[in-house]
Amino acid sequence: MKKFGLLLVAVALALPFVWWPQIAQGRDGIALFSQYLGLGALIAMAFSQVIATRWPGVELIFGPMDQTYRLHKWLGIGSMVAILLHDTIDAEMKGLGRETMLVELAETLGEISLYGLLMLVVVTVATFIPYHLWKWTHRFIGIFFLFGAFHYLYILKPFKNGDPLGLYMWVVCIIGTVAYVWTSAPRGMRPRKHYKITAVTQQGEAIAVDMKATGRPLRHRAGQFAFFRFAGAGLNEPHPFTISSAPSDDGSLRITVAPLGDLTNRVSRSLAVGQAVQTDGPYGHFGRAKGAQVWIAAGVGVTPFVALAQALPTDAAPVTLVYCVRNKTNAPHLAELEALAGKKSNLTLILWQSADQGRFSAAALPDLVPDLSNCKVLFCGPVPMRRTLSKDLPKHGISQRSFHYEAFEIRTGIGIRRLAEWLWQRHQARSAG
């Protein structure tokens, strides 16, 4: 996450306080706090709407899209908390004017926005709900933003819409509305690259999907991902996949899909040669580390490393790829990686089969990679494995700054399960003591 993007959000949330001392004169402090919570919620939601557009400047301001989506999630949750507090804490003040039908409508839309957003946040953090259903419900978040903007514009408040703070909030509402209109526009009106599937091949437990551009191709760097929408078979929702091939002269692409979730399971069963594909991207900054590197891949997490291995210059610093799989028969792209390692003297491939060797851990790295402390470590794989490596690598000379990964989780929970597990472990430890 870029510090500039976080600073921009912080400044935008704090800016109302520039005009607050003048507005606060002779006003109820508690009601004023509730009023600010409403403004803060709108500002956070506007940022969330902008991030959802995936405009080119979003990564430039906030950082790689995988990290930016985490900010998108917490902005949504933060705005929900602010709205709940705003609704709970009485924001009414005396002497602001009389209520009209327009004011009453604004109050009603504010209530609808509150409960609608609350339901959407619950659906978002309840990760057991299928991805395509969550994606469908997520479309309504912009509508509830519009309701909230209407509520703000026409509700009784201690300043006018034409005052400096009012004009600032006008800008916030307009930006959020434009972002929502963009994301809601028909797919044909938004820029997309068009492809056609040329081959579908089995790769262990996954499938590799090769595709060729039918128009202007997407231009990507090795290690990036894009959003793909497959025509037919009920696969209309775009889904992110890492591009598992290096950039080519003809702009052809390949993705590798493992049946790990609701949509990816359907994708792996439903794709066929000749099927049309729309792409949006590319995104991500993974693989930009320089110098000697250790790549750790687990299962289908090997996909960015296949592309990076293809693009690795023969005169680059040495790279060791530790490929962790249950056994070699279900290892996607293993033969391809073995061939690349045979051609490139600076690429070493180590296959770690957990069925024979047990689970891979950071403790195994010093024996596999000489001079480990001078290497950058790049990881792509399951979240629990990433967390374990992040905790254990410093014990072996790899600092947190030298550990790079892509948080490829467009939809995540809020850590309730992890908190419950931690509390249970603490309880067990105290009981044992």
UniProtKB/TrEMBL annotation:
UniProt keyword annotations, A-Z: 2Fe-2S, FAD, Flavoprotein, Iron, Iron-sulfur, Membrane, Metal-binding, Oxidoreductase, Transmembrane, Transmembrane helix
Domain FAD-binding FR-type: 187-289
Coiled-coil features, chain-numbered ranges: none
Pfam families xref list: FAD_binding_8, Ferric_reduct, NAD_binding_1
Residues that span the membrane, as ranges: 36-53, 112-133, 140-159, 165-183
Protein name from the UniProt record: Predicted ferric reductase
First-listed, main subcellular location of the protein, grouped into a coarse class: membrane
Localization: Membrane
Cofactors named for this entry: FAD
Species this protein is from: Shimia sagamensis
Superkingdom per UniProt: Bacteria
Signal peptide limits: none
